[in-house]
Amino acid sequence: MLGADLEWFTTLAETENVSAAADRLHLAQPTLSRMLARLEKRLGTPLFDRHGKRIRLNDYGRLYYEHARRARAELHAGEQAVADRINPAKGVVRLSFLHSFGSRLAPQLIGEFRRGSGRVAFTLYQGAAEVITRQVLDGEADLALVSPRPGEPGIGWHTLLNQPLVLAVPADHRLAAPSAKSGQRPIRLTELADAEFITMHPGFGMRRIFDELCAAAGIRPRIVFESSDLVTVSGLVAAGLGVALVPAEEPMPPGLAVVPLADAGASRDVGLIWSATAAPSEAVRRFRDFAADWAARRHPR
Questions:
Q1: Contacts 24+ apart (CB under 8 A), 220-225
Q2: How many CB atoms lie within 10 A of CB 217?
Q3: Rounded to whole angstroms, how far apart are CA atoms 120 and 110?
């Protein structure tokens, strides 16, 4: 299967829609249908189940897609390796990161790196932890900034920093006023069994941490709002709509107060991930090494 064949088949497999795939590939629908028919004839079996105008990968198609996806990623890596050998000062780093890292961490790392490697370009994507981890495994991203550490096999990881978590409450909340004698008293999640929580959607790293902390505390939280952005979560708390667990280092909007947490493990590790099986380009390797040095300078041992 040639590179062009890999592109049209994997695109069709991922969209499961001939019209959408043809538009993305800038092909006529009949042309794409004939290409699929020739491939299925060569393999001796249909790769999709047809349901009117809709198609869906069958067991043979899913098996073939997994190999085609990996082959496409290898071809892209080969093209990048050749480009790096021709001109090692150039290169592209495909970097994915959580939404909450878009205001500070990602720009800081990219900015400091480019001051010494200005000819390296970046392709950026923001999304949920599960989504960007899958991008790295599928070869669609070279590196990703995530939290917490993914549990999937085949992932390389380097810790960059550790952020303590705090309880965000409205400024007029009963927990917002510190004691005159002892200051702000750390609180345990067991004391919040009746609280109304605002959280991230499932699939986001902060939601995973929140669920694990609540499970360890033995509480079943009442969730009243879910969001895909920590800024929105903080804004909803400031509006008096509930409380939330947030990283202490994140910017806080007016009308919000924070309370320290006493629960063990109330923090999040932030790190850089990559595929442990893919050969990195020169640009990717240099950025990965730079991020490790940056973390060592920030938290010297």
A1: 221/192, 221/195, 221/197, 222/194, 222/195, 222/196, 222/197, 223/196, 223/197, 223/198, 223/199, 224/196, 224/197, 224/198, 225/198, 225/199
A2: 17
A3: 10
* Cβ contact 257:168 at 8 Å: yes
Give the span between the Cα atoms of 27 and 19, in whole angstroms. Answer: 9
Nearby residues of 205 by Cβ (< 8 Å), 6 or more positions away: 98, 128, 129, 146, 147, 148, 268
End-to-end Cα spacing for the chain? 50
User: How far is the C-alpha of 133 from the C-alpha of 211, rounded, in Å?
Assistant: 19
- Residues 107-165: tens digit of each pLDDT: 999 999 988 876 788 999 998 888 899 999 989 999 999 999 998 999 999 999 999 99
Give the 3-state secondary structure of residue 189.
helix
Helix (H, G, I), strand (E, B) or coil at 155: strand
> Do the Cβ atoms of 268 and 209 come closer than 8 Å?
yes
Report the distance separating Cα 228 and Cα 99, nearest Å.
8
What tokens appear for 33 in the block? 């249908």
Other CB atoms within 10 A of residue 171 CB: 13
As a whole number of angstroms, the distance between CA 242 and CA 40 comes to: 55
Instruction: Name the token pair of 44.
Output: 């001796």
C-alpha distance from residue 73 to each of 67, 113, 123 (Å): 10, 25, 16
The pTM is what?
0.65
CA distance 48 to 68: 15
Work out the number of other CB atoms within 10 angstroms of the CB of residue 216. Answer: 13
Round the average pLDDT of the chain to a whole number and report it. Answer: 88
- State the number of CA atoms in the 13 A half-sphere of 223 facing the CB: 15
What is the rounded distance in angstroms from the CA atom of residue 246 to the CA atom of residue 256? 12
